[in-house]
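hey can u check if this looks right to u? its 165 residues, i copy pasted from the old doc so theres a chance i mangled smth
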Amino acid sequence: MKNDYRETRIFGVKEIHKLERFIEEICDYYNINNEYFGNVLLATTEAANILLAVTERQEMGLVLVRFERNPKGLTFKIRLEDKLEGSEETEDVLDKEIRKHRLSKEIFIVKALTDEITISLSGKSITLTFYISSMNYEKSLYRINQLKEYWNKNVTIHTSESEKK
């Protein structure tokens, strides 16, 4: 299987539409059905919004979203990047802990929509994985069951009285 890798950058909450278009293009390419597309779209945009919300500079926050197709499925790595040089070194330990606590409270809906989620220790990165390998298998089972149901139906044939004699 060939790995697919793409990325996009979002500057603040006003550019969240770029992320939505990015996800839509990926889901179209991989023929993700509408129900699962909704999960991918909502979970990924919520994760980006949550990362932007835990920063003080919500309008100026830079979020890098990397997509990777691997044997597990579709993986989106969403990372908050500071524009200021050396900001990681000057950050207080208390600030990191506060950000992680706020993330853990806000992340419930994202956890419910993804198959696998990882939050970095610094609270600046969220990795979402959506399993798609079994989707075709489930479709196949559904179709097999439909065919079995069709072939096992009891069909009654009504004949007219004149044909019985």
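The beta strands are 4-11, 62-70, 73-81, 116-119, 125-130.
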